[in-house]
Design goal:
globular, 6-stranded antiparallel sheet, D-amino Acid Aminotransferase, Chain A, domain 1
Length: 236
């Protein structure tokens, strides 16, 4: 597989073409962004940690029967993935109240959510990723109704698998964001799953082990990501 020209540079990852139009290279950079890209900093080793973390989780989900774009790790910072048509919607599941849910609804931070809350957001930094619902997604043509149903079902399947994976390693999966795309007409999981896109708390102490350390200036960001990786057995 030969890596070719850069197709797209996001806030933390870049996408490169390959000599096979069905596959692209996902390159994880050390850039770390928050507040819709208003704050960007370089964090040493972040690209490598997230690439390896994501590879582990995507493989774990694939093995559990969830279709993903992940093919294989290429090197420390790069993975080979399927070239999907991304659906510009973020799927969020919340098991515990935190972040924007607390700000929007004034509920208590740390409150257990039964049943878990599901939310869609439009991927649009200029509009600050507004919350949308199934009707917006269908009416504006961001995805077909049947694909919306599929994304939702897959996001909950991921919740069942990952809540247990992290619980068995002494952590609470507070919430997370997933992105999906279409590959040969099928909805599959894309983007990444890493501590950049979820909240993870130590089950005993409730210490934050995710990107909130960066957002809130708590320090020890990569050390926390590495601790999570080590606890669930990601080879770094
Ligand atoms: O900010 P909010 O509380 O809505 O985030 C919910 C979850 O989705 C968090 O785990 C956060 O890290 C993730 N998220 C993300 N990318 C975004 C928005 C939220 O990874 N653009």
């Amino acid at each position: 597989m030969e890596k070719r020209q850069e197709l797209y540079a996001g806030k933390a990852k870049s996408v490169f073409a390959t000599d096979d139009s069905d596959y692209v290279v996902l390159s994880f950079r050390d850039d770390t962004s928050a507040f819709d890209g208003e704050r960007i900093e370089q964090l040493n080793r972040k690209g490598e940690v997230n690439n390896k973390f994501n590879a582990f989780i995507m493989q774990y989900l694939s093995d559990a029967g969830i279709p993903t774009h992940f093919e294989k790790l290429l090197n420390a910072n790069e993975s080979l993935v399927k070239n999907m048509k991304m659906i510009p919607v973020e799927c969020v599941v919340r098991n515990v109240a935190s972040g924007s849910l607390v700000r929007r609804l004034g509920v208590e931070d740390g409150m257990e959510l039964t049943p878990p809350v599901f939310e869609f957001f439009l991927k649009n930094d200029a509009l600050h990723d507004p919350m949308v619902n199934e009707y917006h997604i269908e009416t504006f043509g961001w995805a077909k109704a049947e694909d919306v149903t599929k994304m939702k079902a897959l996001t909950f399947e991921v919740n069942a698998k990952l809540k247990k994976l992290f619980a068995d390693a002494g952590m609470i999966l507070v919430d997370y964001k997933l992105e999906f795309g279409l590959f040969k007409g099928e909805v599959i999981l894309g983007d990444e799953f890493s501590p950049d896109g979820c909240r993870l708390w130590d089950a005993q102490t409730r210490k934050k082990l995710d990107k909130d350390r960066f957002r809130q200036g708590l320090g020890g960001v990569i050390e926390a990501y590495e601790e999570v990786a080590q606890r669930i057995g990601v080879p770094l």
